Input
Amino acid sequence: MNVDSIESLITDKTSAIVPVHVYGNICDVEAIERIAKKHNLKVIYDAAHAFGTRYKGKGIGTFGDASMFSFHATKVFHTIEGGGLAYGDSALKDNLAIFRNFGLAGPETVVEAGTNAKMNEFQAAMGLCNLENIDGVLAKRKAVVERYRERLDSVKGIKLSAIQDGVESNYSYLPVVFEDEFGLNRDEVADKLAKDNIYARKYFYPLVNDFECYKDEYSSYDTPVAKYLAARVLTLPLYADLAIEDVDRICDIILK
Ligand SMILES: *Cc1c(COP(=O)(O)O)cnc(C)c1O
Output
């Protein structure tokens, strides 16, 4: 989220700002807090990419009024499916418990249109097992990312995301931008890798505002930076047990 664009988009109907931390990088939480205070707005972060990320020594879930985490199987920490909410105001606790359990305040009392967002015991058990290993997982991911950076950082036409001051990343993704001077475009690089059974993902592609179902409501021309990046980003394979030799093999193919 470009913090310089937020204020011009606030109207009298605005009640909250919903920024997304992406790739384990974080939003400008300080600027967002200043804007939210000034306009009396809530801040609810999508922190699905940021489990384990810390800023100035504090867990990322401590910023804003609430942060949503996804524990889907593809995330750094997972419970197979599921998620979690971190929030500062303990008065929210009872409301949220009702909301996630069909709006039931008692066996015969439904006080709001709730949803079924409960986590079952089996998923919770999976999460507890994964939590035991999380520090090791993050350390291994860090080593993988550092190797990718060593190999790709100075290559002409390749751009990696900046390392942010004060941020301990969770190394959840390795987005690579293939600019025109690289010689091959993003799709061509993805095809070359796929020939060697290496499957890199195009992120965030297609853009949400280009989805068929939103075609009459939104336009990706309103988000030019996202539109530019959606055509050029490839996230390279990244998981805790990815061997450094395999990182080298992937980089060799890209460099060749
Ligand atoms: C995975 C993800 C979600 C969705 O999480 P679910 O657990 O599938 O609901 C939302 N936002 C971002 C940025 C994600 O990566």
Notes: The two ends are 35 Å apart (CA to CA). Residues 135-255 form a domain with the Aspartate Aminotransferase, domain 1 fold (CATH 3.90.1150.10). The helical segments are 3-9, 29-39, 92-100, 121-132, 134-152, 186-195, 224-230, 244-255.
